[in-house]
Every structure is written in structure tokens, then in C-alpha cells.
Amino acid sequence: MTSHYGRRRRYRHANYHLHEWRRRRRVALQRNVLVGFLVAISLPLLTVPALAAQTVGDLPAVTGLSSSALPQDTMIYDRHGNLLADIGDQGDHRIVVPLSYISPNLINATIAVEDHTFYSNNGVDVGAILRAALADYSHRGIKQGGSTISQQLVKQVFIGPHPDNSLQRKAKEAALALELNRRYTKSQILEMYLNTIFYGSQTYGIEAAARSYFQTNAHDLNLAQASMLAGLPQAPTQYNPLINLAAAKKRQHEVLAAMVDNHFITQKEADAAFAVPLQIHPPVNHFEAPYFVDYVLKTLRQQYKILPGDRRGYRVYTSLDLNLQPSRSRRRATTTTSTTPRWSAWIPRRARSWLWSVATTTTDRVAGSIWRTHRGSRGRLSRFTPTRPPSKAADST
């Protein structure tokens, strides 16, 4: 009998860790497929409120949601409506716009690539869940998403950007998406989604994204620009054209192909849009009349208790005439950063009338002062007390 005492045992095999990693990955994929099937089977039961409550627990109320209630930037204009400054929150920007203002190119591209059954599903696409689960399993990786636009909106508003992958969480997301579709129209859901979703470079909502990447408005996005932006929400950093242009172009091609498959555009139009050389701008800070903007912010803070970080969508109109200001004093030196987008355009009047419901007027003795402040409909509506400008006699004393 041969003794093996003292002999070092051979390592199991050279590729042990690789095989173990593949085994764990295979188990995870099988679990995802199982979760997909279970969610698909349980969805009909979630339409019954009592069963839904027992399955996912207490659900937050989906009432009272609106685009105008979203946190958004304070914007300061001159007397002609020219933008002086866009004040975000530590580099984060959102400018809420109505669905009717957004380019049809962007709307069609988003529906084609994110949820082509958007107008026919009830908030959850069972077929998409099963297809995504099977695609992930067959490709041995995450290759396809099964979430509808309603589910993505629910995830952003109620669940958070980095949710767990539990069955209860998926069932909760599905139940909320179903309830969302019972209470809101498709147009309302799509409008909230396009104003909520993250597009990278610290921009939330399509208007902020259009201004940051292309220095244009959501209304004026052409097919090439729209197909590039519509591909960002799936992976905003991975597909950011400023970071990885090759990946962004590949994603743009996928968006255009989806638009062709869903008959939004022809193959010829898709090829033409893909060939368009896009000028993509890095985020830049851009203030017109910077010293005057500083004065406006100081006045808002001291007299009206309005802080830049309030994020209530204030639109401040001043008596300053930007056209009469010397060019050298109009613009603060621009600094290119990764956190502060450049805003060089202004929202047209038709979007303004939708965004702001309260108008008050104040006057000040300083030439080029705050003379009108609009506030959106979010929260309580407060009215500022109008003040009369001091007389010349008072000035002389």
C-alpha cells in the first residue's frame, strides 16, 4: 500500500476559480429566469387589490403626481426673456417642459427602444419580461430589459435608482405600474417619465439633456440628436458620448433600428441620421451679466427667503436689458467642468405659460432690478408684496 503521508495534494485544477465563477453566474441567471416567470404568472393576481396587498405589502399612494411638482432649476431672465442664468443644485439640472413641447423624434425614439407596447400595455409587458429572461439566460448575461416606461418611472419615483433584485421588489414595482396606469393617462405618464429620467452629465429630464449635450431645446431635437439621447437612460455613463463615443454610436444604431422595426422611420432615414456628424458639447457654466445675477440671488435670499437650492422652479424676470450691456461685462469667463452644464437658450413663451402659474411684481430703485417673479405650481403658492420705487426726493436725501 502506497503511503501519501506528507505529499502535497495537487490543486483541484488550474481553472477552478474560472469554473466556480461561471457556475455562480449560471445560478444567478437561472434565478433571474425563475423570477421572470414568477412575476409573469403573478401579475394577473396583482390586479386584485387585496391579493396585491398580501403579496407586496403596503404600497405608496400614486395620487398627486405631476411633472410640475418635480424639483427643478431657478432661471433668471432679462426683460426680453433672454436667459441670464440657470441655477441648479450642485451641478444637477432639470427643466420641466410639457409633452407637447418635446420633439416627436425624441418621443418616438424613446417608445421604440424602451417600451414599444407603451400605448397598448397596462403598465407591465408580460411578454417583454419573459423575452428578457430568456435572452439573459441564452446569452449568459444581462442582454435585454423587460421594464416598461411605467415601471421605470415607478422605480425612479418610489423605489430608487439601485433596487434589490428580490421577487417582492419586482412585484411591488409591477403593482405600482398597474396602479399608475389606472390613475393617469398615457400622455401624463410619458410626460412625467421624460422629465424625470436621468440622461447623464448631471442632467435630469430631456430639456436639460438637450441643452447640455447639444445646446438646443427639446422641441428642436432632430432625428440624429434624438436617437442619441433616447439611448442614454439605459446606461447613462456607459453610453455618454463625451466619455465613450463608440459605445454611444452603437447604442444610437440600436435606437434607430428599433424605430425602423416599429415603423416610426424608414431604413433610409435611419441611415441618414446615423451618418450625421453630431457636435456634442461638454458641460460648461455660462452666466450672462454675472454681477447682476449675484445681486438677484442675494435679493431673492434676503427679501423673499428663496434659496438657489429650493428647486421649486422659480422663473425670475428682471428689468435688465441685456442688449444694452457692454459685451465685456455681460459674460463671466466660462469654465469647462464635468458638473455644471451650459445653458445658452431660453424657454419659449408657450412653455413658460404652462410652467408658471403665479405672477407677482416688485420694483426696486436699482436700475435693472427684479421686477417680476413667477413660481411654478409646486407646493404652496405665496404672493410677494409689491413695493413702489422710492421718489426722487427720497433719493436726494
Name the descriptors.
single chain; two-stranded parallel sheet; 5-stranded mixed sheet; globular; 397 residues; alpha/beta
Write a compact overview of the structure shown.
This protein has helices at residues 16-46, 49-56, 104-114, 126-138, 149-159, 167-183, 186-196, 206-214, 223-230, 245-261, 267-275, 290-304, 327-330, 349-355, 392-396; strands at residues 74-77, 83-87, 93-94, 203-204, 284-285, 315-318, 335-336, 356-361, 370-376. The chain is an alpha/beta fold and 397 residues long.
Overall description:
The chain is of the alpha/beta class. It has a domain at 68-94 and 284-396. It has 15 helices and 9 strands. The chain has helices spanning 16-46, 49-56, 104-114, 126-138, 149-159, 167-183, 186-196, 206-214, 223-230, 245-261, 267-275, 290-304, 327-330, 349-355, 392-396; strands at 74-77, 83-87, 93-94, 203-204, 284-285, 315-318, 335-336, 356-361, 370-376.
